[in-house]
Design brief:
single chain, mainly beta, 6-stranded antiparallel β-barrel, elongated
């Protein structure tokens, strides 16, 4: 009986030595069959090896809205005679505001109309914007030359001028077949009027309004040291103020670092951050909200269908590596993978789903 008591005491001492910060136990010394027989009557806590999905995730605060606003400045001579209301949407081929009581229509693109398009034969990216939009509106502009795709831009051909004239006639404009700056405004895509800055009677070539994206998105400030783990296309989960969780996708990562001044600087505002944009997968999920504080969970790495145990079940072997202990005292050498949510991915010979192993807590 004395020998049995010493063995139990020694084994108990081994099972309570913890690795700092890891939650695992340290195993030292050989494990003999006699020790196993002696340890078997011990009442120990056990857990089941499970097969599950592990995700390296983080949850950060974000703001639901329409993103940053941009200023739209008018061009050309004339007087503003009508302006849209905040919340209005810009629609391709339709008027956004009026100058001298004539409509200024919306085209989508990246190059504004910076010169009159009155003579055929000129070439440039502004001509490409005109051609792209007329084709998108259903008008035949004739064949597009290879130079359209070589960087020089499209040519203002007689066929393109004729398509422009047909479109002008169909929309109640003066059917001239020519286009001058100020008669159309080029925007990057579907946008939403955020605020109106001008009023009827102002000159046309002044800041008229601000606009945002038409789609709601979530802006999340992410520490600059962590943003490298995210990329466009990553999935995310957005928790709304009412407790609902909806799915989203990372759409863009900012390129401007904010904050992070020197510790002794008056400009110190906390850690340096980069804005990450997340778009809800279904616009209908957030249609009732224009702005709200939300929580966003990013799953940066996912391991599917792996064997996992609580971290507290790991035994850190003195000679290096890890093991799991079965209830009968035998050890199973394991390799560890992802750590997430208090669990650790494990693999090892003879380790199967449903196995029982000892845990320290």
């Amino acid at each position: 009986m004395a020998r049995r008591g010493k063995t139990v005491a020694a084994l108990s001492a081994l099972l309570v030595v913890a690795v700092s910060g890891a939650g695992a136990m340290v195993w030292s010394g050989a494990h003999t069959g006699r020790d196993t027989e002696a340890a078997a009557p011990l009442r120990v806590r056990t857990v089941t090896v499970t097969r599950t999905d592990l995700s390296d995730s983080r949850t950060l605060p974000g703001t639901l809205g329409f993103g940053r606003s941009h200023v739209l400045k008018g061009t050309g001579p004339g007087v503003v005679t009508a302006l849209p209301k905040p919340g209005a949407r810009a629609v391709r081929g339709q008027a956004l505001y009026r100058v001298d009581d004539r409509p200024v229509v919306v085209f989508f693109g990246t190059t504004p109309f910076f010169r009159p398009l009155t003579k055929t034969g000129v070439r440039g990216h502004d001509v490409s914007v005109l051609g792209d939009n007329l084709r998108a509106l259903g008008y035949d502009t004739g064949p597009v030359g290879t130079s359209r795709y070589s960087g020089a831009g499209e040519e203002f051909t007689p066929a393109l001028a004729a398509a422009l004239k047909r479109w002008q006639h169909d929309t109640g404009q003066d059917a001239t077949g020519t286009l001058v700056p100020g008669r159309a405004v080029v925007l990057p895509g579907e946008v939403r009027v955020d605020a109106v800055q001008a009023q009827p009677g102002d000159p046309a070539d002044t800041p008229l309004l601000t606009y945002t994206s038409a789609a709601r998105s979530v802006t999340v400030p992410v520490e600059a040291t962590d943003v490298g783990t995210l990329k466009a296309g990553n999935k995310a989960q957005i928790t709304l103020p009412d407790g609902r969780t909806v799915r989203g996708t990372v759409s863009a990562l900012g390129r401007t670092v904010q904050g992070g001044g020197a510790q002794d600087s008056a400009a110190q505002t906390g850690p340096a951050t980069v804005e990450v944009s997340v778009v809800p997968d279904r616009a209908a999920d957030v249609r009732a909200l224009d702005a709200a504080a939300v929580q966003v969970r990013f799953d940066t790495t996912t391991r599917e269908g792996v064997l996992a145990v609580p971290v507290s079940a790991l035994l850190a072997l003195r000679e290096g590596g890890y093991a799991l202990q079965r209830p009968d005292g035998t050890l199973v050498a394991v390799k560890t993978g992802m750590f997430a949510g208090g669990l650790v991915e494990v693999s090892g010979k003879g380790l199967t789903e449903g196995s029982r192993v000892v845990t320290a807590s």
